[in-house]
From TrEMBL:
SUPFAM superfamilies: Radical SAM enzymes
Keyword Amino-acid biosynthesis: no
One Pfam family named in its UniProt record: Radical_SAM
Cofactor: [4Fe-4S] cluster
Name by which UniProt lists this protein: Radical SAM domain protein
Organism name: Ruminiclostridium papyrosolvens DSM 2782
Domain Radical SAM core: 89-309
InterPro entries: 4Fe4S-binding_SPASM_dom (IPR023885), Aldolase_TIM (IPR013785), Cys-rich_pep_rSAM_mat_CcpM (IPR024001), MoaA_NifB_PqqE_Fe-S-bd_CS (IPR000385), rSAM (IPR007197), rSAM_sf (IPR058240), Sulphatase_maturase_rSAM (IPR023867)
Keywords tagged on the record: 4Fe-4S, Iron, Iron-sulfur, Metal-binding, S-adenosyl-L-methionine
GO MF entries: 4 iron, 4 sulfur cluster binding; metal ion binding; oxidoreductase activity
Keyword Iron-sulfur: yes
Length: 478
């Protein structure tokens, strides 16, 4: 029977080896099968009854080094909780303005298309006055921030190009001495030379949404008259390459992957299509959690092709395949593993009494999304119709109690999180708990199984990569 006095660990295997993830130190132990079985039995029964003397010795040695501790968090509290007022007053890092809720396209999966819960296209535009107030608020609350980052978001933000121009000019006048960065996310159908020339002048990073070759892109990204938008976008990209070649390094593409499409075709497009292949691209799957009915449909063939590309990526990482054969789409997959397992997995000696699962940003500080009416939200991904996600407004400022609640979303599922081996890798923030304006335990717990499966998969793949590069040893601390 598992209890709280046995090691707080998680067991997993690859084809070649046995591993134990040690929650308290964040270390991964590679052990032989006797040790693995004995520790597993210890966790299950609460007793360490090894019949193998070697195994007993190895387990004692691991324990002496500080691993296999049974300690669990006593309290769930986000590390930023105590200093939250200070962070919100002085350290804001990014402001995104929703300059309009209108769009000239009707993408099937867009959060404003009507296929999603809680969001619909409207003609609400941000006034210049609201934009100025939001900029002033940001400048006032970022005295300890070296660089100011501004994003322009829609609907389609270029419908409000005049407003964007005026706002950037206002920012430049009112934030002298600070470094600035600008981002704009667009469907690229409204770009013209005048706009690109302005964007180039202010080094605005441009993220263009494109989903693959014409036959795939035009299925989802359609104009109001139901015609596709691909040809217009390609023409505009060509215009940038020909007339503003030095602006190219500020342009990137963002692709929404729809599993009903042919993965090979999309992959081929981003790897070889002239005019696209030279730019950086990022990829995200269609978010299924907001969709009302059957827009999302998993396709087996798509998964198979995707997994094969992951396999090729692994082959390239161990020098068995030339990098040029690796899909751009799955490159991000490797970076995720690297990010989670190497960069964000400090192995520690001490055990904390208080902690919070991974996931939540410091809402308002890391990012502040101001919608067209001047209401505050943590980011562009959350629903603007959700009362739970509204963290203030241009007139009332930050609602610190609500922000405290959002960053401490782990307290909603406190008991489950205290006993969850995957907590340090968890990626659930309040967005995943939002159920039509209420923070719901059930809604959040719905995603937990998936989180643990994904984390275990990442652990396995990380160890697999290590196996390919490292020599065999009885116990290896990764
Ligand atoms: S998705 Fe969640 S963690 Fe990410 S920025 Fe938005 S609110 Fe913060
Ligand atoms: S997966 Fe669920 S139980 Fe585990 S830490 Fe995340 S929210 Fe908590």
């Amino acid at each position: 029977m598992k209890n709280n006095s046995t090691p707080f660990v998680h067991f997993f295997k690859t084809h070649k080896a046995n591993y134990i993830y040690d929650f308290n130190t964040n270390a991964i132990l590679k052990v032989n099968s006797d040790v693995y079985d004995d520790i597993q039995q210890f966790v299950e029964t609460g007793e360490l009854n090894s019949t193998c003397p070697d195994s007993k010795e190895v387990i004692s040695s691991i324990q002496r080094q500080g691993y296999l501790n049974s300690f669990r968090w006593k309290e769930i509290l986000h590390p930023a909780s105590k200093l939250l007022p200070y962070y919100l007053d002085n350290c804001m890092q990014m402001l995104t303005l929703q300059v309009t809720q209108a769009c000239n396209l009707r993408c099937a999966y867009c959060t404003y298309s009507g296929n999603f819960v809680n969001r619909h296209h409207s003609n609400v535009r941000m006034s210049y006055d609201t934009a100025k107030k939001a900029v002033d608020f940001y400048i006032k609350h970022s005295t300890n921030t070296d660089k100011l980052n501004f994003g322009f978001y829609g609907g389609e933000p270029l419908l409000e190009f005049e407003l964007i121009k005026n706002v950037i000019e206002y920012i430049e006048k009112n934030s002298e001495g600070k470094e600035k960065g600008y981002n704009l996310t667009t469907n690229a159908t409204l770009l013209n030379e005048e706009i690109v020339s302005f964007l180039q002048e202010y080094d605005v990073r441009l993220t263009i949404s494109i989903d693959g070759p014409k036959e795939i892109h035009d299925k989802n990204r359609i104009k109001k008259d139901c015609s596709g938008s691909f040809d217009t976008i390609i023409e505009n990209i060509k215009m940038i390459s020909e007339k503003f070649p030095s602006y190219g390094d500020k342009v990137m593409f963002n692709c929404v992957l729809d599993p009903r499409n042919d993965f090979g075709c999309i992959n081929e497009f981003f790897t070889n299509y002239e005019g696209i292949n030279g730019f950086y691209s990022s990829f995200a799957h269609i978010a299924k959690e907001y969709i009302i009915n059957d827009v999302y449909d998993t396709a087996e063939e798509y998964s198979k092709q995707y997994d094969y590309e992951v396999f090729k990526l692994f082959m390239s990482k161990i020098g068995r395949l030339d990098k040029k054969h690796v899909s751009k789409i799955v490159e991000a997959y490797y970076l995720n593993i690297k990010n989670a397992m190497i960069d964000n997995r400090p192995v520690t000696a001490g055990m904390a009494k208080i902690g919070h699962h991974g996931g939540p940003c410091i809402a308002g500080m890391h990012k502040l999304f101001v919608n067209a009416q001047g209401d505050f939200y943590p980011c562009e991904k959350v629903s603007e119709c959700s009362e739970a996600m509204k963290i203030g407004s241009i007139d009332s400022g930050f609602n610190q109690d609500k922000i405290y609640q959002l960053i401490n979303i782990g307290q909603l599922t406190e008991n489950q999180c205290k006993g969850c081996w995957a907590a340090k890798f968890c990626y659930l923030c309040a967005l995943f708990a939002d159920d039509s304006g209420n923070l719901s335990i059930d809604r959040k717990m719905f995603y937990c199984k998936q989180v643990r499966e994904n984390v275990e998969q990442q652990l396995k793949e990380y160890c697999l990569l290590k196996e390919m590069n490292f020599d065999e040893e009885d116990v290896y601390i990764l």
